[in-house]
Amino acid sequence: MTATVTIVDHGAGNLRSLRAAFERTGAQAAVTDQADEVRSARLIVLPGVGAAAPAMRALDARGLRTALEDALAGGGRMLGVCLGMQLLFEASAEGDTPCLGLLPGCVEEIDWARRVPHMGWNDVASGGDGPLAHALPAVCYFAHSYAVTEAAPGLVAGTTEIAGRPIVSAVSDGRVTGVQFHPEKSGAAGRAILEAWVHDATA
Fold first, then answer.
1. Active-site annotation holds for 144
2. How far apart are alpha carbons 175 and 201 in whole angstroms?
3. Which end of the chain is more exposed for a tag (fewer CB within 10 A), N or C?
4. Which parts of the chain have pLDDT scores under 50?
5. Tens digit of pLDDT for each residue in 106-120?
6. Residues 6+ apart with CB under 8 A from 126
7. 102 membership: H or E segment, kind and range
8. DSSP SS3 for 142
C-alpha cells in the first residue's frame, strides 16, 4: 500500500519541492491548510521557511496547532523540516515566540558564528538510534539563523558543527521527528532520509 504524506501549508514552506521529494520516494503527497485533513492524517510534514512568530500565528489562526496535536494523539507521525523542526520545541528566541511544545527545549540564535545565516552543505553526524539512523551520517543542505543547541540526549538523532560548536540537526522522540536541514534540497542523501522516515512511520 502506498504511503500518503500530508504536508501542512501554513503559508511558509518549500511546499512544491517537498511534495516532489516525497513523490520521488514512491509516496503520495498532498498539501493542505485544512485542519480536518491534518487531524485525520497519519504521516504529517510540518515545513517552514521564514520566522517562528508568523508561522505560529498562521498555525493558530487556521486551527492547525490543535489539529496536529489531535493527529499525534490519534497515532499519527510528524516530521518537522527546518523552521518546522524548530516549531516542535517549547520556544524560540526568534521574537521570543512560544512554539508547539511537542519536544522539550528551546531554539537559540546562532550568534557565535561570523557568517549567519548558516547556508550551504554541511555534515550531519548520526546521534543515535531512531527512524533516520540508517540514513545518517550524511551531507545535507542548510539555510537558517536559529537552531537547537541543547536537547535531551535521547532526543538527538543528528548533530552538525557550525563555527566549532555543535547544533542539533535532527531529533526523534517516538511519533515526532525533525530535521534542521532541507532534505528536499539535499540530493540522494535527502531522499534516503525521507525514505527512512516514511519506511519507519509505516512499518
1. no
2. 8
3. N
4. none
5. 999 999 999 999 999
6. 133, 136, 137, 157, 158
7. none
8. strand
Separation of alpha carbons 87 and 107, rounded Å: 9
Cα–Cα distance for residue pair 70/82, rounded to 1 Å:
22
Helix (H, G, I), strand (E, B) or coil at 145: coil
Segment (H or E) for 93: none
Place of cell 553526524: 125
Which among 94, 108, 182, 195 is annotated as catalytic? Answer: 182
Q: Are strands 138-144 and 97-98 parallel, antiparallel or unpaired?
A: unpaired
**Is position 108 annotated as part of the catalytic site?**
no
Kindly name the residue from 94, 108, 184, 195 that is annotated as catalytic.
184
Give the long-range contacts of residues 53-59, CB within 8 A, separation 24 or more. 53/94, 53/95, 53/97, 54/11, 54/12, 55/10, 55/11, 55/12, 55/83, 55/87, 56/87, 56/97, 56/98, 56/99, 56/100, 58/10, 58/11, 58/12, 59/8, 59/10, 59/87, 59/100
Task: Please write the tens of the pLDDT for every residue from 134-160.
Answer: 999 999 999 999 999 999 989 999 999
153: left (phi over 0), alpha (psi -120 to 50) or beta: alpha
Task: Establish whether 182 is a catalytic residue.
Answer: yes
- Return all residues near 80 (Cβ < 8 A) that are at least 6 apart: 45, 46, 48, 86, 87, 88, 176, 177, 178, 179
**Which grid coordinates belong to 202?**
509505516
Q: Which is the catalytic residue, given 10, 82, 118, 195?
A: 82
